[in-house]
Write a structure and sequence with these properties.
With 528 residues, the chain is mostly helical. Helices cover 70% and strands 7% of the residues. 21% of the residues are buried.
């Protein structure tokens, strides 16, 4: 029992000693933490003091800079005010000097007016005296004139009014006869000069324009490297050639011609599409119906792009600006159209250049004339078929795409299907005839040409009183010589009209034909 108590006491003492030791350790730890906290607090205080000092210095520097800036702005404002005050003072001094000068000028003018007024008074008095003298002399002159008139009336047995009337009538008749003579001379001289000047302008215009020759009309030749490719183009049972003809609308002629295939079609655009498509197919080597349709579609798109490029290049070369894109496309499309074997784009370019030169010679607007000349045959390349003539259709297209009235009228009137309302309209008509009528411009078989010349002369010789008939200037003029005993001057005019009407109704010809009837009376005698 005593042992247990001792053990218990020892245990309690040990516990108490542990508790005391723990408290001592805890107190020591707490002291250490307090010391660390004090050190941390002191470091924070020092850091805060440093930051405060730094902020104070920064604020002082900012305040100084602000002060310097404010002072500079203040000085600048004061200088600006001083400058403005100086300008105001300078203007005030200038106004004051101007007012002084103006006052001096007014004083000088006042003195000058006073001197002139005094001089005018003296001149007025002198004129009054001179007027009195002239009045007296005029009265004496009238008295002498009346006396002289009475003496003349007594000698001539005529009053003054009767003599005056006879004199005026004689002078009037003489003046009328002279005026008629001068008028006729002026008219004859003006006609001669006008004809001479017109011929000069037309000749110069033609000479200054380069000309193209007629092109092929309806056939394109496609050259091959060898005749072996023909079988590949024809295909099994002719399916390739049928597919190509169906896709392009062109007839392919494969005959015995060595290393060549012919494309036959009235439309040059279709022939060009067929040629390029076949060229691609032959180069590629894959020729079958599906491939043919694909290549033809691709070629059509390429041709459309090429048409736009041709149109844009043409208007740029001619110096024409502001043309609608659709009209530019139609201009490019003319490259693949021909008229009587003459390429339509080359013809239109030639007409445009002729119009520009002729308009410049006549003092008109050459750019407007060029524009009308280029577009005059735009109705020959429509996207859709129509019953209108190409001139009226071209005028309609030009109006639709915003062209000026002068260009519209020139397009519609170049074949006399519209009334000419502007000066450039006859210029376009004349240049169109010049371009189409020159040698080599349009294709024509020689036999047809000779037959047309012969038919012209035969038609004229069928009329009564016609002695001879000659077709000259490549069939552009028909000269008819009549017998003076059978045909009068009045009949000559009637005969010329009738022959022209008969040619117009019975014959087909390009351009126009001038009919000239010549009647002369010859008296022939022989001196022996």
């Amino acid at each position: 029992m005593d042992l247990n108590i001792v053990t218990l006491i020892i245990t309690v003492v040990a516990l108490l000693l542990g508790i005391v030791a723990g408290k001592f350790i805890f107190a020591k730890d707490q002291k250490r933490k307090l010391d660390e906290a004090d050190l941390h607090a002191q470091s924070l205080i020092k850091e805060a003091e440093l930051r405060a000092e730094t902020l104070r210095k920064e604020k002082e520097i900012a305040a100084k800079e602000k002060f310097v800036q404010l002072k500079a702005d203040h000085d600048k404002e004061i200088m600006e005010r001083n400058r403005k005050l100086g300008e105001i003072e300078s203007k005030a001094r200038q106004k004051e000097q101007a007012a002084i000068q103006k006052e001096l000028a007014i004083n000088q003018k006042t003195e000058q007016l006073e001197r002139q007024l005094k001089e005018n008074v003296v001149i007025k008095e002198t004129l009054s005296r001179q007027i009195e003298v002239v009045s007296v002399k005029q009265a004496e002159l009238e008295k002498h004139q009346d006396e002289h008139t009475r003496r003349l009336e007594k000698l001539a047995n005529l009053t003054a009014d009767e003599a005056r009337s006879q004199l005026i009538e004689g002078l009037k008749q003489e003046a009328q006869s002279r005026a008629l003579g001068m008028q006729q001379e002026i008219i004859d001289e003006a006609k001669q000069k006008a004809n001479k000047e017109a011929r000069k302008i037309i000749i110069q215009t033609i000479q200054r324009t380069a000309s193209e020759q007629a092109i092929e009309n309806a056939i394109t030749v496609f050259n091959l490297e060898s005749d072996e490719i023909k079988g590949q183009i024809i295909g099994r049972e002719g399916r390739n050639i049928r597919a190509l003809e169906a896709a392009t609308g062109v007839d392919l002629i494969v005959d015995d011609t060595p290393e060549a295939i012919l494309f036959s079609c009235f439309d040059p655009l279709r022939r060009e599409i067929a040629r390029l498509s076949l060229q691609r197919l032959v180069s590629d080597g894959r020729i079958h119906p599906a491939r043919i349709e694909e290549v033809v579609e691709k070629t059509k798109r390429q041709i459309e792009e090429q048409i736009m490029e041709i149109g844009e290049r043409t208007v740029i070369e001619l110096g024409i600006h502001g043309l609608h894109k659709e009209l530019v496309r139609l201009v490019g499309k003319m490259r693949f159209r021909s008229s009587y074997g003459q390429n339509l784009l080359m013809h239109s370019r030639e007409v445009a250049n002729l119009c520009g030169i002729m308009a410049a010679e006549l003092g008109l607007n050459p750019k407007l004339a060029k524009r009308a000349g280029l577009l005059h045959d735009i109705g020959k390349v429509p996207d859709e078929e129509t019953e209108l003539s190409h001139a009226l259709l071209g005028a309609k297209l030009a109006e639709r795409y915003g062209e000026v009235p002068a260009v519209i009228n020139a397009i519609g009137a170049h074949h006399d299907e519209m009334e000419m309302q502007f000066v450039i309209s006859p210029i376009v008509q004349a240049c169109d005839s010049i371009s189409g009528a020159r040698p080599g411009a349009r294709r024509e078989i020689m036999q047809q040409y000779l037959q047309r010349i012969k038919d012209l002369e035969t038609l004229a010789q069928g009329y009564t009183g016609v002695e001879k008939a000659y077709a000259i200037q490549a069939g552009r003029e028909l000269r008819v010589i009549v017998e003076a005993d059978k045909v009068t001057d009045g009949d000559s005019e009637k005969l010329s009209f009738e022959i022209a009407q008969k040619i117009q109704t019975e014959m087909t010809y390009p351009g126009q034909i001038k009919v000239t009837v010549i009647r002369e009376k010859r008296a022939v005698n022989v001196a022996r």
